[in-house]
Amino acid sequence: MNYFLVIFLLLSDIYILTAQVDFTSSNLPIIIINTNNESPIFDDPKVEANIGIIYNGEGERNTIFDPRNEYFGKCGIEIRGESSQLFDKKSYLFETWDADGNDIDTSFLGFPAEEDFILYGPYSDKTLLNNVLAMHLANQMGHYSSRTRFVEVIINDYYKGIYVLMEKIKRDKDRVDIAKLNSVDIEGDELTGGYIVRIDKGVYDGWTSQYDAHNSFNDVKFQYYYPDQDNIQSEQKLYIKSYVDDFESAVASNNGFNEGGFHYTHYINLRSFVDNFILNELSKDVDAYRLSSYFHKDKDSKGGRFTAGPFWDFNLAFGNADYCQTSVTSGLIYNQCGGNNPFWWNRFLNDVTFLPAMKCRWEELRQSIFSKEYIDDFLEEHKVLLEESQERNFTQFPILGQYIWPNPTFFENASSHSIAIDIMKDWLNSRIEWLDNNLPGFAVGCDKFDDPNYEVMMDVSLSDLNRESIKLFPNPTADYVQISSDKSIGEVIIFDMIGNQLKTLNHDTKSAIIDLRSLSSGTYILKTGPSLATAVKLIKL
Q: What's the CATH fold of domain 461-540?
C-alpha cells in the first residue's frame, strides 16, 4: 500500500509541476531531461543530465508516464544561441554521453547516429515553422541541411513547450559529407579537403577577404569551423585561404577569369551558390549572406569545389523581422540588409553565367517545391500536426498578440497559431509572385547547368588581323555574351558572315553584356577598338 502511495505521489508531483498546461501526453515525441540535483543550465560549460525520449510510434499517443523507450542515457547540456538567450524560452545544445561522461554516437527518432544535437526553441517565430520549412526546402533541393523533428520538452520536471530537434552542423557521412582532415594532412590531395568555413559574428580565428563587403567598407571575415581554430594546421589555413582568394579574384575581374586563367566556376559548385541565393531570397532571411553562412570543400579527388551550405538559422526569415525591409515582399534582401555581405553576389547578379543558371533553376523549382500548392500543403500539414501541442506551448509562453523582438506588425498581432501560419502563407505567395516578376536573368541553356562540375572555359577566337586584349565569353553562347577588354570598349558592331551590319552599340566601360536574342543561330563577326580593327568570331547557338 505504501509502495503505491509513493508512486502516486511521485506521479502527482510531475503532474503538479506541469499542470499549468495540463501536460501528460502528446501526439509528438516527448523529451524529458533532468540535471543532477536540478542544477541550472548555463551557456557554458555543459552540465550533466539524464535524457529520456518517449515515442510509441506513428499515430500513437506518448505520455510522460511511459518508459523512455526511444532513448535513455546521460548527456551534457548547455544553453545555445546569442540574442535568443534573452528570450524566456531558451534553446539548448546537448551531447550524448556514456556512463563515464565520454561522447557517444546515438541514434533516435530517425536521426542518423551522432553525438551532438540541438533543441531549438522557436519563440519570436510564432508559426514555429521557419527553420523546419527552410531545412525541408534545402533538403528537397538536393543539399544537406539539418533534419528536424517537432517534440515537446520537460526539463527538471518543468514543461518547456514545443521544440525542434535538429542536428548540429558537423563533418560526418550523414551530415556535411566531406573527407576527414587530420593534422598530418598538410600536402598533396590530402590537403585539399575537407573544410567547413563560415561568415558569422563573433571573434574566431580565420582570415579577412581581400575585397570589401558589398556597398560598404566593412571587412568580410571567414572563420575556421572544421577543422576548428584549435586544430587546423598552418598549411591548411594557407590552403583554404588561397583557394578562396583565387575564387574571389576571378569573380572580381572584368571577365570572370583570374590571372591564372581560371573562371570563377572552376572553383565553386555553381548549383550550390545558385540555390543558396534562391532560398535566401525566397525566405528573405534577414541574416542571409552576412551571418550563419556556411561553406565547405572536399578533396580535389572527390570533386573538391567550394560549395555553399549547409543552410542555417532562419528564425528571422519569411517576413519575421521589423528591420531591413524584411517584412515587405518586394526587393532583394541582399541589397536591403547589408554591411557584411560578400561582394560576389552583386557580381553574380550582373554575370552572364550566373543569371541564366539562376533563372533556369528558379523556373524548375517553381514547378515543384516552390509552387504555391506545395508550400501551402506543407504549412497546412504542420498546422494540423501542431494543433494540439501549440495550445500548450502558447499557454506556457503567452506571446500571441504581443510584440516579441523583432516581430513585424502582422506577426505581432497574430492572435492564434493558425492565423500566424495563414499570414506566412500569404507572405510567401506574395514573395514568390514578386520573384517571378523581378528575378533577373533569362532561362537559356538550362541543360548545361545540371552538371555539378559545370565550368566556363576560355574559348575566344580572334582574327589573324589583330590580337589585342578583347575577350568574349561564353562563346559559343545562346542569348547573351560578355565582352571585356583591358581598355574602354567603345564602339561595337556585329556583322554576319557576308558583311551585313546587324547591331551597333557603344560602351564606355571595360566590360559589358550584349543581348543576342534578336540574332539567329549562326556565326558572326564582332568588331571593336580603334577603327574597328579588332575582330572576334562569335558563335550564336
A: Immunoglobulin-like (2.60.40)
